[in-house]
């Protein structure tokens, strides 16, 4: 006989449960509040997109697209993928809805699940959640005439986006948040392309001493070698040419202005020349934020500038900058490093209505409706219970009060409210009781 095996959540996915979900809720609400103060509105793109969107935007040679996407052939034989990130979707939506006709820049944020088939470990899941934001701006036709002004504007936008994440992390009191920044220049011979050629030839010379992954990357994506965490590769990486020494004048000016803008805003940063990021669409600014209590997967946020991506996807010339926060990691860091309890989310005032008798039932249902309408959390047992049993359950549920309603109390119009923490009791008429609880709740 076939044994009945238990169903389990798929590897790398998990159920988020109360009370932790109260913390998720608070974190999401705070994001909405903070982002709104910077003028961002919410976009909710679909979870499914055509595979080609990610191949083109994120890059066919990246780990994300070549190894980690959940891709399937839909019934009409088109290749469809679960989104591994949302920047590509936001750019697609910008084009699809002609957002270049809206007042510029367009500032959008999103929250939701992303999917990558990575090896699961602490802080790394196959279904994980991001809180992200993007600023997109149609490039004026005459922009080239005033290049210096454009560079100054872009660096100020970059700095404000970074300031927004840091403000959010401050508000959440995220422990040990550290911002790393870099510039990876732009795709031209006198800038990143020239640098990558130099990097490649330096890597070729050191090829035999590198691990298999880095050897493979020399051809496909040499910048990613700088990301390597392998112990024995570190001394070699230290000797490699650095991008800052090979930026073109415009990228250099943009990077200097970005640092100045961050200083103006009091945002502390560390320069990290090895910060190259794992997606192909970046140019100039890249940044990452790490936090305490996370072990090896300690990046809670990554982002950067991606001018040209909208155009690559078939849209008009558009500049872009954005970031995505790993919400799972953010929660882990808040819970672990600060020992933050989920109840810090401010539970609702709660009342357990213990009722007995037919008259009491009718009154209890009415009382529950009135209290819930006032925002108070009410537990109403579906069948009558002896008061002793009801009180036991009320304290198990951590209710603040128990309201005792028997047919006598209802007939006399005198209701008993018990405070569970100290066992004290008070008598009220119906209007007095509602007044008292609403007052407590306010
Ligand atoms: P990303 O660096 O691939 O960038 O992801 C951003 C953040 O998502 C990471 O720093 C990390 O916190 C979280 N994350 C990534 N993969 C996982 C995973 N498997 N499990 C848990 N958390 C994970 C992007 O996705 C870009 N779209 C960010 C961006 C927006 N750049 C410009 N605009």
- Tally of individual helices: 15
Give the DSSP E fraction (strand runs of 2 or more residues). 15-25%
Give me the side-by-side strand order of the main sheet. 1-5-6-11-10-9-7-8
Amino- and carboxy-terminal Cα gap: 60 Å
Helix content: 25-40%
Bound molecules: histidyl-adenosine monophosphate
Taking the sheet with the most strands, its summary is: 8 strands, mixed
How many DSSP-defined strands? 16
Provide mean pLDDT, rounded. 94
Detail the poorly predicted runs. none
| Structural class designation | alpha+beta
Form type: elongated
Rg is: 28 Å
Q: Which features characterize this protein?
A:
eight-stranded mixed sheet; 15 helices; alpha+beta; binds histidyl-adenosine monophosphate; 16 strands; single chain; elongated; 442 residues
Characterization of the model:
- It is a single chain.
- The N and C termini lie far apart (60 Å).
- Helix 1 (20-37) runs antiparallel to helix 5 (147-172).
- A hairpin with an 8-residue loop joins strand 9 (283-290) and strand 10.
- An eight-stranded mixed sheet has the order 1-5-6-11-10-9-7-8, sandwiched between helices. Strands 13-12-14-15-16 form a five-stranded mixed sheet, with helices on both faces. Strands 2-4-3 form a three-stranded antiparallel sheet.
- It is an alpha+beta fold and 442 residues long.
- The model has no long low-confidence stretch (mean pLDDT 94).
- It has 15 helices and 16 strands.
- Helices cover 39% and strands 21% of the residues.
- Histidyl-adenosine monophosphate is lined by residues 85, 87, 116, 118, 123-125, 128, 130, 132, 134, 278-279, 299-304, 322-324, 326, 328-329.
